[in-house]
């Protein structure tokens, strides 16, 4: 029970973080967290104001069967979250937004090009854009699987953004970074044509950021020996 409360708290916090990060307006997005041990996911309730989302309001769903527990209706995007958890075994959190700059690229059916080291760091390549698909059954989930690349995020043509990760924090970071680089690339287009970063250079930046950036316990300095 304590673990379930922790997951509910995490899901509520992730959803409240979406408007705080400028990724959604009104009800235009959702976040979920998946626990493979119990086979349950926890997701935003449909149409609920973000500031009203508490752990008790979060909706619990059985990933294998799709059974919904409790009286609250889950997000209408539940089928897409379910599809991703069922088909991407390392994913533990999924976030969907309609953030402005990233969705502007999606409206034009354009990927976010690999023209910044920040894009290489976080995504390893361009942020792809899938063509428009309908919102029935598994159409969106199948499009994500078909068109995704190394990036933990994708644009959906004429729709918005999906991001994911091994933790809620990682999924939120991916969603934030998609919007951040989309804004920068959009501004770059006002000045001229953004220049592509060579793939071999992108691989170097991606490896550095993913494997050597930040505090690595294995490379912390050893304690000094006492004199004498």
TrEMBL record:
Origin: domain of life: Bacteria
Family under the similarity heading: Belongs to the aldolase class II family. AraD/FucA subfamily.
Co-factor requirement: Zn(2+)
GO cellular component, one term: cytosol
Biological processes, Gene Ontology terms: pentose catabolic process
InterPro entries, sorted: Aldolase_class_II_sugar_metab (IPR050197), Aldolase_II/adducin_N (IPR001303), Aldolase_II/adducin_N_sf (IPR036409)
EC identifiers of the protein: 5.1.3.4
Protein name per UniProt: L-ribulose-5-phosphate 4-epimerase
Family annotation (SMART domains): Aldolase_II
GO molecular function per UniProt: aldehyde-lyase activity; L-ribulose-phosphate 4-epimerase activity; metal ion binding
Coiled coil: none
């Amino acid at each position: 029970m304590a673990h379930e409360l922790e997951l509910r708290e995490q899901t509520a916090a992730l959803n409240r973080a979406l408007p705080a990060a400028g990724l959604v307006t009104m009800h235009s997005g959702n976040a979920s967290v998946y626990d493979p041990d119990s086979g349950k996911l926890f997701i935003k309730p449909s149409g609920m104001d973000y500031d009203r989302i508490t752990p008790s309001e979060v909706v619990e769903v059985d990933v294998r069967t799709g059974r919904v527990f409790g009286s609250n209706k889950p997000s209408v995007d539940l089928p897409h979250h379910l599809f991703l958890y069922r088909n991407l075994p390392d994913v533990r959190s999924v976030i969907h937004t309609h953030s402005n700059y990233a969705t502007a690229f999606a409206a034009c059916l354009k990927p976010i090009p690999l023209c910044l080291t920040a894009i290489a760091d976080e995504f390893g390549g361009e942020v792809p854009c899938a063509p428009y698909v309908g919102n029935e059954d598994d159409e969106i989930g199948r499009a994500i699987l078909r068109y995704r690349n190394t990036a933990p995020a994708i644009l959906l043509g004429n729709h918005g953004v999906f991001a994911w990760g091994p933790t809620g924090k990682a999924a939120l970071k991916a969603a934030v970074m998609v919007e951040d680089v989309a804004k920068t690339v959009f501004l770059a287009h006002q000045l001229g044509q953004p220049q592509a970063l060579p793939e071999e250079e992108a691989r170097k930046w991606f490896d550095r950021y993913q494997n050597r950036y930040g505090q690595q316990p294995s490379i912390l300095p050893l304690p000094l020996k006492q004199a004498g």
